[in-house]
Design goal:
Elements: H1 6-9, H2 12-27, H3 31-39, E1 52-56, H4 68-78, E2 82-85, H5 90-99, E3 104-108, E4 113-117, E5 123-125, H6 126-142, E6 149-153, H7 157-168, E7 172-176, H8 180-190, E8 199-201, H9 205-210, E9 214-217, E10 235-237, H10 247-253, E11 257-258, H11 263-274
Parallel strand pairs: 1-2, 1-3, 6-7, 6-9, 7-8, 9-10, 10-11
Antiparallel strand pairs: 3-4, 4-5
Helix pairs in contact: 2-4, 3-6, 3-11, 6-7, 6-11
The structure holds pyrrolysine.
């Protein structure tokens, strides 16, 4: 998991409203609607504004990322939750969250970022939730993924979660990773549960990019997708940090690209933590 930098997230509180408007323009759904679809249905009597969410900074390992907790809190508040950052980090923050009768906590160290529902004890992981939210975003931008070919770049944890979601929406997958072994491993895992005709791999990058105009970039390398190979009308969901698109590729697809450092993942975590 690539560690976010303060520069990646410090503007989220000030820009979340505008971000949501752009997301709605691109996908037809708001951040909340995308997260709700990715999470599955909520109980109709769920009163979000009554739910208290504690975001607890963690100082272990490489320590706190300045702005991270505030960014997460601003996303939760934007969605209507009663969210706050605990006064203290670590154990004192956890105690404060419980003493303030929080319903949910969100907490991240260098290895894992989770939302925990303190009532149901449901634990939701950021990577899995992010993949689910971005699959919905790609589906929305494409109209439908049923019987469409999607190029999935990155056969790691994010790519694996995304592959499941894309296949469940009826997509055919071309899996590309710089590691052909990783491609084969993910393909083998997927074909245990899905039609093997729906998953293919083993192409070189240029050929893979030519085979589909729907791209799910689950990579964690930056700027390696060249502009000359990406199709003009490509639609791209890119949860990976840093983004795989080169600046040239970005300039070709920016109006049909969904990419953010935290928003879709945090929103989907919160609603998945509330799902039955
Ligand atoms: C959750 C993000 C998404 C991408 N990379 C992940 C990351 O940067 N993880 C590290 C988060 C550390 C947070 C720090 C704090 O401020 O509480 N422990």
């Amino acid at each position: 998991m690539t560690r976010l930098k303060t520069d990646d997230i410090m503007n989220i509180p000030a820009t979340i409203q505008g971000y949501d408007q752009v997301l709605k323009a691109k996908t037809g759904l708001s951040l909340k609607e995308i997260a709700l679809e990715a999470a599955g249905d909520l109980r109709s009597d769920t009163q979000i504004d009554r739910l208290k969410v504690a975001i607890i900074p963690v100082t272990t390992g490489q320590g706190v990322i300045d702005g991270f907790a505030k960014a997460v809190q601003s996303i939760a508040s934007h969605l209507g939750f009663s969210a706050f950052v605990t006064e203290f980090p670590d154990v004192r923050g956890l105690a404060e969250a419980y003493n303030k009768n929080s319903d949910l906590i969100m907490i991240a160290d260098d290895h894992c970022f989770v939302a925990i529902n303190l009532r149901s004890r449901l634990v939701i992981d950021n990577t899995k939730a992010t993949a689910a939210g971005y699959v919905v975003a790609l589906k929305q931008m494409s109209g439908s993924l049923n019987d469409k070919t999607v190029l999935l770049i990155g056969a790691g944890q994010m790519g694996s979660f995304a592959a499941e979601g894309l296949l469940q929406y009826g997509a055919r997958l071309i899996i590309y990773d710089s590691s052909k072994e990783a491609e084969a491993l993910l393909t083998h895992k997927l074909t245990d549960s899905y039609d093997e005709n729906k998953v293919s791999f083993g192409y070189n990058f240029e050929r893979a990019l030519n085979m589909s105009s729907l791209i799910f970039d689950a990579s964690s390398g930056g700027g390696f997708i060249p502009g000359e190979f990406i199709q003009d009308k490509s639609i791209v969901a890119a949860p990976g940090i840093p983004m795989g698109l080169s600046w040239c590729a970005f300039s070709k697809v920016h109006s049909t690209l969904v990419h953010d450092p935290l928003q879709i993942g945090v929103a989907t975590m919160l609603f998945q933590a509330l799902s039955e």
